[in-house]
Design goal:
By secondary structure, this protein is α+β, with helices and mostly antiparallel strands. The protein has two domains: 2-58 and 279-414, no CATH class; 63-274, no CATH class. 49% of the residues lie in helices and 22% in strands. It contains 13 helices and 13 strands. The chain has helices at 2-14, 20-59, 80-86, 122-125, 161-167, 213-216, 224-230, 251-262, 271-274, 276-314, 316-324, 329-365, 387-409, and strands at 65-69, 75-76, 91-106, 109-118, 132-135, 140-144, 150-160, 176-182, 197-208, 219-223, 237-238, 240-245, 266-270. A six-stranded mixed barrel has the order 3-4-10-7-9-8. α2 crosses α12 (329-365), α2 packs antiparallel against α13 (387-409) and α10 (276-314) packs across α12 (329-365). The longest helix has 40 residues, at 20-59. The protein starts with a helix and ends in a 9-residue tail after the last helix. The mean pLDDT is 82.
Length: 418
């Protein structure tokens, strides 16, 4: 009986109606579903593209995994657990960091900054070289006497673009920066307040831009020994351990194993958790966008109710004949249920094809441009098509289409068609 109902519904879908208005309303219904379906695919793909773009920018500065103490700012790095961490086979790069707030001074301008002391292998740990806008990444120069022994250590620093603008400096300035950090121990000398600060200097080697205010306006990278000196840390103290994993290693699996190794005294965060607030906002925005588009799709689906109601009136005589031939009210209801669902499916198929064509075209050819100026990170709208979004749109349209078709078709179950 289901196959019979489906064949009759299919014939009704393309058969000529006695009233042309029914064809027009049915076409409008399918077109409405198609437009909203295409819009859902395009909007979700654009949001995925912006999310991936920002994720790549964070990836240039953030490590795969970051380990911090659950209580207190710093911890000791010469423990047995951390020694075992160094030897894990999937840890490609191990790096200790010290990060505290200090004061930068240049030509009478004083600006607070987050001074991050990084190890010699920071360029291997991250993709810092890819976001350098001026100069080079270099936090220390070592000069030797020709016999391979270091005789001079020249401290260098790398600043965020916003911080450099606040200080009014560039990568090729000859003058150095003065760095200040309050001493962790001892009393403040009211007669000589400057004696309550550790002081040092560093010459500028480069400027980076993550295009995120939290980094560009606040961060300065210096050498790890200089940071330990400024903040009174010993050689076996750090505020974080940053790790780069070997290619192909699952971050979730590695995080789980490292957390078990280090215990509850340490917090292990992957890239998403390091930027948890940002990615939560992105997820909320995407969810709200989906809800809004589903509401618009629901309104578009109401056209199906109207077209089915008109079709049921137009086919009144046919339903009476089918009833006389033995068709029960449940079968007649299924005919119009399938009819409405097929209108939705045709609209959904057209919308998905259109949305995919537009999204993939933008993804690979960049049809719609953001601009040609240097103020844009990318020249065209970023787009990333994800299979899960396509399945979500298809399932949503099918569900709402079935609901819109069920509302008018269920009336036949309560009517006497004989």
């Amino acid at each position: 009986m289901n196959s019979t109902s489906l064949r009759i519904a299919w014939r009704y879908l393309f058969a000529k109606k006695s009233h042309n208005a029914i064809n027009i309303v049915s076409g409008i219904s399918a077109a409405g579903v198609a437009v909203v379906s295409a819009a859902m695919v395009v909007v979700l793909s654009v949001m995925n593209g912006f999310g991936s773009l920002v994720e790549r920018m964070f990836s240039a500065f953030d490590p795969d995994l970051k380990i911090t103490a659950t209580s207190g700012k710093h911890f000791y790095t010469d423990t047995e657990q951390i020694e075992q961490l160094r030897t894990l086979p999937y840890v490609a790069v191990y790096s200790e960091t010290v990060e505290e707030t200090g004061l930068c001074e240049f030509a009478g301008k004083q600006v607070p900054a987050l001074l991050k002391g990084v190890d010699y292998n920071f360029a291997e740990l991250t993709q810092i070289d890819s976001i350098m806008t001026d100069g080079e990444f270099l936090v220390v120069n070592k000069y030797d006497d020709g016999a391979g022994e270091s005789v001079l250590r020249l401290e260098r620093c790398v600043l965020g673009l916003g911080l450099a603008n606040q200080l009014g400096i560039g990568a090729h300035f000859v003058g150095g920066l003065r760095l200040y950090a309050p001493k962790r121990e001892g009393r403040v000398n009211m007669l000589r307040p400057d004696k309550s600060f550790n002081q040092s200097s560093a010459f500028i080697s480069g400027i980076f831009a993550v295009n995120q205010t939290k980094y560009d306006d606040k961060y300065m990278l210096i050498s790890l020994p200089l940071a330990r000196h400024l903040f009174d840390y010993t050689a076996n103290q750090a505020t974080a351990i940053e790790l780069k994993l070997s290619a192909g290693v699952s971050q979730k699996k590695a995080k789980r194993e490292i957390s078990a190794l280090l215990g509850s005294d340490f917090s292990v965060k992957d890239r998403y958790e390091q930027q948890e607030d940002f990615f939560k906002i992105m997820q909320i925005e995407k969810a709200l966008t989906v809800i809004l588009l589903i509401f618009i799709l629901l309104l578009a689906s109401f056209n199906i109710i109207g077209s089915l109601s008109m079709l049921m009136i137009d086919k009144r005589e046919d339903t009476l004949i089918l009833g006389s031939l033995g068709a029960d009210r449940r079968m007649l209801s299924r005919i119009f249920l399938y009819e409405g669902w097929m209108i939705s499916l045709l609209g959904a198929a057209a919308g998905l094809i259109l949305g995919l064509a537009v999204s993939l075209g933008q993804q690979y050819f960049g049809w719609i441009k953001l601009g040609t100026g240097t103020e844009y990170i990318v020249s065209s709208y970023p787009v990333e098509v994800q299979a899960l979004d396509i399945l979500l749109v298809a399932a949503t349209v099918c569900l709402l289409g079935w609901l819109a078709a069920w509302i008018p078709s269920r009336k036949l179950k309560t009517e006497d068609n004989r």
